[in-house]
Amino acid sequence: MEVLKIATAGSVDDGKSTLIGRILYDTQSLTTDKLEAIEAKSKANGFDYLDFSLATDGLVAEREQGITIDVAHIYFSSKTKSYIVADTPGHIEYTRNMVTGASTSQASIILVDARKGVIEQTYRHFFINNLLRVKDIIVAINKMDLVDFSESIYEEIKADFQEMIAKSEYKEQNITFIPVSALLGDNVVATSENTPWYSGNTLLDHLEGLEAQDVYEQSHMRFPVQMVIRPKQTHFHDFRGYAGKIYGDDLEVGDEITVLPSLTTSRVKEIYFFDQKFDKAGRGSSCTITLEDDLNISRGDMIVKNAERPNVGKQLEAKVCWMDTKELQPGTQYFLQSGSNRILAKIKGVSGVIHTDFSGEDITANSLKLNEVGNVNILMSRPLAYDSYTENKISGSFILIDAHTNTTAGVGFVK
Amino acid sequence: MELVTKDRNTIDPLEAIETHNNTATLAINPLESEAIYIFREVVAQFEKPVLLFSGGKDSITLVRLAQKAFYPSKIPFPLLHIDTGHNFPETIAFRDKLVKELGVELIVRYVQDSIDQGKVIEEKGKYASRNSLQTTTLLDALEEFKFDAAIGGARRDEEKARAKERIFSVRDDFGQWDEKNQRPELFDHLNGKISLGQNVRVFPISNWTELDVWSYIAKEKIEIPSIYFAHTRKTFVRDGMIWSADDAVYREEDEVVEERLVRFRTVGDMSCTAAVLSDAVTLEKVVEEIRASTISERGARIDDKRSEAAMEKRKQQGYF
Ligand SMILES: Nc1nc2c(ncn2[C@@H]2O[C@H](COP(=O)(O)OP(=O)(O)OP(=O)(O)O)[C@@H](O)[C@H]2O)c(=O)[nH]1
Ligand SMILES: [Mg+2]
């Protein structure tokens, strides 16, 4: 069975959690004990309907306030697919958690409240999905029951959204619009009788039709070394294996490789997965490889194919999405971590804050506040092997770690 | 032979090696690859990791994944078992055998010792359980050995508060989980940097479901304790759940003991783990049963039924 990773997005109260709860309910994915708990809690809250958001809002604070604070990961399966759903918060304060959920998802369902239309947070979330290059976007225009299932309202919102799409940078995104009522179930799993003017798929049918893909996508082979395995046992006395996960493309025994940043070269001798040897391993595989030559390789190095070298340097330009209350200021030090590589880095400068409503850039800005996205110039203490994010998602992205609090303060996308 | 990581979730219990046109292909699951990746990150990023081993199916699965992650080296960290004293005897025997085979170090710390030292007070009466007392023993053990990363087998599909947990989940000096202020976790860039006094809980099988675990156990032919299979046991019924009639489980006089054909879906402290009626005597039958089941695994855990937010509260205090 294929696994499809999806995330929700959209402003607070647009109905994201309710929608996921509704899908779970309509696909009989809620176990009896969980359903009973939802029934009891809905009743206790004085609702005469089932509050499906309770299926994902698992924290006490969330249930008290009726909002989502952090991502919930939900699992269900249909006949053809397994789904991993990241139900994310809409509140601006928790944007970092929305980015967390979206970063590992192939598809995003962006909800819009039909009564409110496209608002600031819709712009921001679409912008982030664009920045992350999430492949499939479903715009679910929700709460259609509260606008009498009006076709004209649906069309107006769709037109507003399309105006925004026209300004976006990542054009290969597949975008689909669906009018739904998460609360009542219209066009979620079952086709609605209230929208005769809509001839498209229901949300679930649409998801079922998507081709599941690895979020890291096909590109050049990248093998970030996580650790060196040296068993030093009699049987494996001279064994020196490099453990890591293969990204981008296949790796084969005999492949001519370059180690970065040292630029030393060798050939792949063996590929191990546990105690078995393989001639070839596909992307996504965590394996251990050995090389023909004894090279000095350690954690953080990257192994690539000779003909497909990435950039190597001490300086890079990136779009950074800031997630810390402490502002990003030029001159400050952070640890830059990309995969297994962590390097001390210094912010050289911020050359502008990008408006997340696609209205351009504020080039006078020289710092980044919480939830802002900006162009940042970074200097590193050691050379890093990197790609542009559009070419390779793993070697083209990184996190910035605050050197004092150790928190993950921002995420960067190499230009 | 060729290794591919297929985008499929449920691990096929059938033989994984397929042969087409003379090339044999081993298809591994992305979840398995992800778990191995996480194990390696833990060992590379932390000074003193430990694997929390309960003897249950999830921790047994973790052990297998750790073996794969570091082969041909041995598992480079010890196992820690917090013994409530109310274990099923089958799981203890199983644990000792496994540890011997793997040649890894096993550390055992006892809840009874925490009680004797007056650090925790034993619960009394009908719903008494040592489950929540474990937390103190666990935190003490982490401190005693200065472990900075504790690897556990919790899964996000188990419970609504667990659905919110990160893969690298930071705990403060008191072992507390600050659920409203978790670090963002992006792509495969796992941030294991911590300050003095903090430690991290790591969950390599976060994204696995109960069915994934069972299918994996079946596929890998992993040995598991016998209580996971249907067996005849002296039991009694309370609140619609089936309990083992054992000294460790409090029983009222009017609660009648009967022999039933049962198995356990989850193995915790005996006093809070209920059995289910089952005739599944093989792994294949167990997989079938899970697939068809309409109640969740933790539906049989009385510790979660104490209150709506039982798990979240225990986690805040440092529970696994
Ligand atoms: N009438 C109607 N109400 C809805 C619909 N969908 C959601 N709601 C209600 O809108 C409110 C907010 O729903 P949630 O699902 O919690 O919204 P959310 O988008 O998850 O909110 P955050 O996660 O906090 O951003 C709840 O009271 C829902 O019952 C719908 O289709 N129709
Ligand atoms: Mg929500």
From TrEMBL, chain B:
<feature type="domain" description="Phosphoadenosine phosphosulphate reductase">
    <location>
        <begin position="49"/>
        <end position="274"/>
    </location>
</feature>
<comment type="similarity">
    <text>Belongs to the PAPS reductase family. CysD subfamily.</text>
</comment>
<dbReference type="InterPro" id="IPR002500">
    <property type="entry name" value="PAPS_reduct_dom"/>
</dbReference>
<keyword id="KW-0067">ATP-binding</keyword>
<dbReference type="InterPro" id="IPR050128">
    <property type="entry name" value="Sulfate_adenylyltrnsfr_sub2"/>
</dbReference>
<dbReference type="GO" id="GO:0005524">
    <property type="term" value="F:ATP binding"/>
</dbReference>
<keyword id="KW-0808">Transferase</keyword>
<dbReference type="InterPro" id="IPR014729">
    <property type="entry name" value="Rossmann-like_a/b/a_fold"/>
</dbReference>
<dbReference type="InterPro" id="IPR011784">
    <property type="entry name" value="SO4_adenylTrfase_ssu"/>
</dbReference>
<protein>
    <recommendedName>
        <fullName>Sulfate adenylyltransferase subunit 2</fullName>
        <ecNumber>2.7.7.4</ecNumber>
    </recommendedName>
</protein>
<keyword id="KW-0548">Nucleotidyltransferase</keyword>
<dbReference type="GO" id="GO:0000103">
    <property type="term" value="P:sulfate assimilation"/>
</dbReference>
<dbReference type="GO" id="GO:0004781">
    <property type="term" value="F:sulfate adenylyltransferase (ATP) activity"/>
</dbReference>
<keyword id="KW-0547">Nucleotide-binding</keyword>
<dbReference type="Pfam" id="PF01507">
    <property type="entry name" value="PAPS_reduct"/>
</dbReference>
